[in-house]
Amino acid sequence: MGEQEEKKSAKKEKIPRQKMAEQEPKERIKNFQEVPYGFTPEQAMLEASRCLKCKKPKCVDGCPVNINIPEFISLIEQGKFIEAAWKIKEQNALPSICGRVCPQEEQCEKLCVLGKKQKPVSIGYLERFVADYERASGKIQLPKIRPKTGKKVAIVGSGPAGLTAAGELIKLGHDVTIYEALHLPGGVLVYGIPEFRLPKAIVQAEVEYLKALGVKLEVDVVVGKTITVDELFEQGVDAMFIGTGAGLPQFMDIPGEELNGVYSANEFLTRNNLMKAFKFPEYDTPILRGKKVATIGGGNVAMDSARTALRLGAEKSYIVYRRSRAEMPARIDEIEHAEQEGIEFHLLTLPLEIYPNEQGYVKAMKCQRMQLGEPDESGRRRPVPIPGSEFIMDVDIVIVAIGNRPNPLIPQTTPGLQTQKWGGVIADEATGKTSREHIYAGGDIVTGAATVILAMGAGKKAAYAIHKELTGEDLSASLPKGENKQE
Predict the structure, then answer these.
(1) Residue 253: partners with Cβ closer than 8 Å, 6 or more residues away
(2) What is the pLDDT of residues 73-109, one digit of tens each?
(3) pTM of the full structure
(4) Is 258 in the same domain as 222?
(5) For the chain, how many structural domains are there in total?
C-alpha cells in the first residue's frame, strides 16, 4: 500500500462497513422469503465512500468477469445508481444474481486494499443494491447490439455459464439459441439455490433481459436425447457452447443409503426450489418432512439443505461434517445464517451406516468421531477416525450433500468429445475449446462443482473464443488479467 493510499485508508477507518438488515432468525425459519433486505440508498452511498479509488485496483483482478469495480462504486457514491448498474452490465449480464451468491470474500473483496487495514468494501452488497434498484425503477437499458453476423450459436444449458455466454454472443451480433432440459431456465440458479437465498423472480428477470436482447430459449429439450449435438450442427449451427453443469449427485457408499428418507441434496433441493414442494398441495410435489434431519457435508449446498429442512418443519436440523468448522467450504455468511437459525453442527463426525425402521424408512445413523491429521492434496488437514468413538444419531431424514459430477449424457452421445476420468469435459482453460471442432464448454461440466461467478467467467471466455472462430476478431484483451481463485 502506497503512502497516499495509507492516508486515505486512515480516513476511511472512521466509516464502518455497512450491514444489511435481515429477517430475524425466529421469523425467517417459518418462511422461504429472502433473508437479507439489502442496502438502503443512504447505506449504499456511505459504503461506496469507503472505496480508496486505487490507481491500480486489485479488486478487478479478482473478478472472473472483469467488472470495472471502482467506476461503478464511484457512481454509487455520487448517487447515480442507475448508471452504476449500467456500468456493471457492460461486463456482467447477471448482477442481481452475482450480488447474492458469489463468494466476493474469496475474490474481489479479498484483494481490496482497504481490507489490509480493516474490513474491505462490500462490493457484492453494492452490486446487489444497484441491480435491484435498476430493476425496481424499470429503467432497464439494453446495450448496443452489433450488426448481425449470420452465424448461429447453440448454448446447451441455461445455468450461469450458458446465460453468460449467450449474453455476450448476442451482443456481438450472433444468432443465439439456448437449449434447456428442464421446464424453466436458470440451471442451478433455479433448482439448486433456495428462494430465501436467491428469489426465483430475480433469475426470471435476468433471463427476460437476455430474451429482450434477442436470445432465443427452448425448454424441455434434453440435448443428447431429444436431439443430439451432431443433429444440431446438421440443422445449421456454426458453433456450440456446452454448459450443462454438474447435476449428478455423489453418495458415500455406506450401508443404508438406499432407504426411504435418504435424499441426495440435488433431489431434495430440486423438489423444493424448482418443483415447489414446500407449497404442497398447491404444487403436487410431495416430499418427506422429518422431525430430525441430518445433512452430510460442509459446503453451501449442505447449508441450503439444512436450512430448507428447518423451514419444512424439522424440529432438529443437523450438519454432519467430517472436518472442523475452519475447513468448511461454505461461505462464512451461509454458515453464520445457519447457526443463527439453530442448525446444530456435528463437526469432526463421519457417518458410517444408516439404519431402517420396520417400514424401511430411516430411523438412525451410526457415526464416528474424527480428529484432524496431516494436510491432504486440497491443503486441508485430513480427518482421521478416533477408535472406539462410534455413536448413534436419532434421525428420520438424511440428505447427502458431498458434491456432484457432470451428467454423462452429452459426452456419451457426442463422438470425439474427450472427458476426464471423473466425467468432466476436457476444455482449454483460456478459451473453453474442446476436442471437437466448433464445440466449446465451460462451468461445472469442465471444473466439477464450483461457484456461479467462475462458471460465468468461463462462459465469457468461451463466448469470445467462439466469436474469434466465427469472425476472426480477437476480444481476449478485455478479459480479466488476474488469477481468479477456484473454490
Answers:
(1) none
(2) 999 999 999 999 999 998 898 999 999 998 899 999 9
(3) 0.91
(4) no
(5) 3
